[in-house]
Amino acid sequence: MDLIKKESLEELLQPQAHVWNHIFYFINSMSLRCAIQLSILGIVHNHHQSITLSELATKLAFPKTKTACLFCLMCLLVHSGFFAIRKEGYVLTPSSRLLFKDNTMSMLPFLQSMLDPILVTPWHSMSALFQGNGLKAFELNKNFNEAMVSATRLGMSVVVTESKGVFEGLRSLVDVGGGIGIVANTIAETFPTMKCAVFDLPHVVTTLKVNENLIYIAIDMFESIPHADALLLKVIIVDMVVDGHKVKHKFTETQERTEKEWEMLFLESGFTHYKITPILGLRSLIEVYR
């Protein structure tokens, strides 16, 4: 093989680094999952001050032979922004504080669910989707509802704060496929005069408690949806199959849409106008009116 010219080498290094970055990107997620499993965040929190590597290893009851491995793990987590260095020790960051279960905005259940091997494994067969073989159905464990709650709570806090006007004046609202009702409950608490209802399958809502302005109705949303001033849909997952105590979810054909494609869909469905408001990261609030 001919020697690569200096100019060509410099041009090659950046794309090579880009490829390497994608090859090993999973290490970030797995390192964070490891820290959760080892209770490292809790140990640092309970130390009440910056904790050194040796102190952390002692708290974890690791042998000295594992100190180098722990150092590498902590370097990754510092680089990822989940810990910071202060006074030669590790401290928590705002990101890591979102991973405590007692935090009302906790994202811990969502992290645990999304990084569970049950959900990660199907991605290894992603090419099968394009080859006509489909993806294997995978089981969603009991943490799924908790994961959806943690993923929803922060977003809804932003919605009812920054987009409060969307809900003002509404007398009734139905959350279609609303799960255990975290969205509707947030709205009901913020607007106590509004009558809210959550529609979902019986195994989801049958045991949930109602309150003065929030009720749960067990029904298939494809069969019937009652009249209300507003219907709310958030991350609807379809093709659910109840099998004993387990719920299976199979990927169905979905697509990402541009705003122009959304507009066409709304107008062709009989709506007259719409409004899209970015609220948090990649998520947006879409209002559609007749």
Structure description:
InterPro entries: COMT-like, COMT_C, COMT_dimerisation, SAM-dependent_MTases_sf, WH-like_DNA-bd_sf, WH_DNA-bd_sf. It comes from Protea cynaroides. Keywords: Methyltransferase, S-adenosyl-L-methionine, Transferase. Residues 20-101 form the O-methyltransferase dimerisation domain. This is O-methyltransferase. The protein has 290 residues and is α/β, with parallel strands linked by helices. It folds into two domains: 6-97, Arc Repressor Mutant, subunit A, CATH 1.10.10; 118-254, Vaccinia Virus protein VP39 (Rossmann fold, 3-Layer(aba) Sandwich). Helices cover 41% and strands 19% of the residues. The chain is built from 13 helices and eleven strands. The protein has helices at residues 6-23, 26-37, 40-47, 53-59, 67-79, 94-97, 108-114, 117-120, 126-130, 144-162, 182-190, 202-205, 259-268; strands at 83-86, 89-92, 138-140, 172-176, 195-200, 214-218, 230-233, 240-243, 246-249, 273-280, 283-289. Strands 6-5-4-7 form a four-stranded parallel sheet. Strand 8 and strand 9 (246-249) form a beta hairpin. Helix 7 (108-114) packs across helix 10. It is globular, with a radius of gyration of 24 Å. The model is unreliable at 237-254 (pLDDT under 50).
